[in-house]
Design a protein that fits this description.
It is built from 5 helices and 7 strands, in the order αβββαβαβαββα. With 166 residues, it is an alpha/beta fold. A 5-stranded mixed beta sheet has the order 5-4-3-6-7. Strands 1-2 form a two-stranded antiparallel ribbon.
Length: 166
Amino acid sequence: MRALVLGFVVLMSAPAFGQQIEPTDFPWFNGPTRDAIYRMSENPNAVHVFEAFTLSCSWCNRNAPQVQAMADEYADNERVQFIDLGLDSNDRNIQRWVAEHEPTYPVVKDVDRQIWNILRQSNGVPQTFVVDCNGQMVDATIGYWGSSEKATIRAAIAEGLETECQ
């Protein structure tokens, strides 16, 4: 019986892939202008790496330098777009995130948690979603980026870059 329950828990917590998102416009908190909008449609061949965060999440804050380091690795590849996906409803929290972490890649607000509700694998943050140029989720990680999470994200980016874009 214990093996059956354990198998069910593993099955229920396994990432459910196949989710697909449409190109979305997001309020861009560290964009080139005050009222900037990040438009996924302006990067139609991109692999998007969404790191979902909230300011109150201690693991998200600890993970921020890891995300920046990986974004720096891919900085010369315009097909790879790292995005901090803010889940806070309070814009001041997202502004504080930008001020505290100073990411060099876009920090956006997931208005009404539209993307989060499609891609999330659990209710906890941080979560990372790698989405190919067709809006299809390639892979996801949950939690702080250790070596296995980084390997998963890199492999998903490579797979996403091999995807034929429509």
